[in-house]
Specification:
It is an enzyme of class 2 (transferase). The chain contains eleven helices and seven strands. By secondary structure, it is of the alpha+beta class. Strand 5 and strand 6 form a beta hairpin. The longest helix has 22 residues.
Amino acid sequence: MDVIKEALDKIPYLGFPNIGMRDIIDILVVAYLIYIVLAWIKDTRTWALFKGVMIVLVVASVAYLFQLHTLWWVVSNAITVGTFAILVVFQPELRRALEQIGRGKLFESLINTSDQAEDGLTDEAIEAIAKASLHMSKYKTGALIVLEQETRLGDVERTGIRIDGLISSQLLINIFEKNTPLHDGAVIIKNNRVSAATCFLPLSDSMEISKDLGTRHRAAIGISEGTDALVIVVSEENGIISCVRNGKIKRGLDAELIKKILLSTRKKKRSERKKVIWKGKSKNE
């Protein structure tokens, strides 16, 4: 073994470094901190941004290695400006993370994020959401139901009150009942459970949204513009049921169409997966 080690030491860049206990502890601490940051990012909308940043870094590495000077100039300047842009755009998320570290809640939340994402809504959950939507539409009870997809909505959940209850039409109707403590805000549904209620959603600043649509619809469009969430909206003014995805709104849904849209959110095996085309109406319709 010593002979092999001596031979490898003579080869440049292949020598064995002297690693002590301090170095091992140092590596483990850094690795754990990186894990904490990645786990926190993955549970928020920042995860999509993080993947975009990684793609930009890969492109920058390729441009540097192959001496693509024009591409390297563009990417390097974009990274410089993008760093400040990220700090400004995600200032609320960064502030919230620092506050959680100060209260010791960040580590607690990471320990409790072991839920395994399920394949999609069960038949019972779809039936319950459709039934509740029709009931609230009949009595003109305003509702805002957000269904989490690939993009995690952990940062949105934390703005509301944790429920973690099984999906039922009675629960949803009771939450949005007028003059009750939980009726104001959005409900987040994930892993076939009502995760949180009274959640605050970002409002869309699009000028194309019809003036006939109020704050509830603008909030639904806002969350769908930044994530892949599917949002069911029941109007308090006229009882019209709408569905929002990717910033597009489809209005005037009935029970059959609600169930069809909810079924489209189910995950399928890669070999069986079919492309679902969202044919929503424009924002001003």
